[in-house]
Amino acid sequence: MVAGIENRLFEGDGEKGKVPKYSLNDLDNEMFRVAGEIFSVSIAQGGPAPQFMQEWCYKYLVTGKLQTDGFFDTELSPLLKEIEDATDLSPYIQQILDCGYTGPIDIEQKDGILRAVALHATTKRTPMLQQLREGLEVYNMAQVMKDKPDECRSLFVIGNDGKVDSQYIMSHLAPEMSPHGSSKRLKETRILDFFQDFLYELEDSQPQAEVLTVSTVMQWMTGQSHKHLLESERQTFKIKLRFDHNCLDHSPGHTVCFPIVSACTNTVTLPTVHLQDYESFKTNMKTAVKYGASFDRV
């Protein structure tokens, strides 16, 4: 839901942060208010959080006051750079006027022109931010942000990545292992190595549409694809990993079965008989994750 709102109502550079789209239709339909309400509910329920905004947007949401420091606009930021480096402003007269600047256009007034362009880029989005701010009043989130601005910053500003990586999953695994020295223990250790290699391979693969990711695996196992927002939750979070060595006894004659996931209890049971080598493990896992997202067994 949060990712959908990001794509629908925000625009900008994925690395420098995003800003609300200048969309009067969405403003008129109070879509930004709805977005704020959804953000509040999502954060209150453990995430994901909208960690994609620029710093100045967050400061406005907290204080209601406009600041232009640190803003980036895909259209106007290049213009600002060109004006800043220019020795002759005549090629930019129309663009400067379109930004609402009405003073003399010459090199001596460059600082004022730069401020006007920056204000134009930010002020036209303040109605969207104000509506978003009103939506954040759900669960009293706006007041919490005002009282704890530094603590809440990581929930909104780009650079505080909540994306799950292989280290996050592996560090929270709690495998239920057989006794040391047993043949079962050796199989279980080998499967754990397979799982780690599988996550590393997904992490190193080039991002493509509809390709399995580490976040997808996390969601398959636990029901959520993001890191936990609270440090206390991260400390207590565990993924129980169990090993089924007797699936042939349960279902004699079958040729393959897949991991069983209980996302409500963060428990995954792996059928060791069908995971003898890495290629078998990878094929089995990819099939399970792809077709086992619903509340049933593959």
From TrEMBL:
GO terms for molecular function: ubiquitin-protein transferase activity. It comes from the Eukaryota. This is HECT domain-containing protein.
